Amino acid sequence: MNYFEILRLPIKYDMDVDLLTKNYFSSLRSSESSVDSGLLNEAYSVLKNDLKRAEYFLNLKNVSTEKMSSELAIQMFEMREKYESFANWEEKIEFQKKIKRKIKELISYLKENEGDLKKFSEIFSELKFLNSFLEKERSDVYSRD
């Protein structure tokens, strides 16, 4: 049984988050549920997160989520170099805001390209990189003396 089935949802990336939440809480309250609460919590956690849901969706479709095109790898390398070249925090913060806007845009592209797994996978790769880039920068800010 996969996470979509556990929460009684169709297997698709673009989902009704309100229905996800409704089904989750309904399953938690149900005494008839045969699903362990830990598994139920894991399913809900994965499906409510755009990035995790995309990766899970691709895994269900047997599409690798570890590949990155050489073109994307070069783009990402250049982006890191550009970020490191900024002289002050204001520039870095503005750049991070641009990345956050790009992430929102990519999430909408995922929804539009759900039927084209190759394109969906390419968008996911970029989204995954941008998300990890932001997480790394956040952790670096908090680790500074």
Explain what you see.
With 145 residues, the chain is mainly alpha-helical. The chain folds into two domains: 3-48, no CATH class; 70-143, Monooxygenase. It has helices at 3-6, 17-29, 37-48, 50-60, 70-85, 89-112, 117-143. The protein is elongated.
Concise synopsis of the structure shown:
The protein is an all-alpha fold and 145 residues long.
Topology:
Elements: H1 3-6, H2 17-29, H3 37-48, H4 50-60, H5 70-85, H6 89-112, H7 117-143
Helix pairs in contact: 2-3, 3-4, 4-7, 6-7
Query: What coarse outline follows from CA principal-axis ratios?
Result: elongated
Class from helix and strand fractions: mainly alpha
The residue-averaged pLDDT reads 90
Mind telling me the C-alpha Rg?
18 Å
CATH level 3 topology of the largest domain: Monooxygenase
Count the beta strands: 0
Q: Give helix and strand order, one letter per element, not per position.
A: HHHHHHH
The span between the termini is 47 Å
Count helical runs: 7
The proportion of residues forming helix, as a percent range, comes to over 70%
Based on the structure, what is the oligomeric state of the protein chains? single chain
CATH architecture of the largest domain: Up-down Bundle
Number of domains: 2
Biggest β-sheet description: none
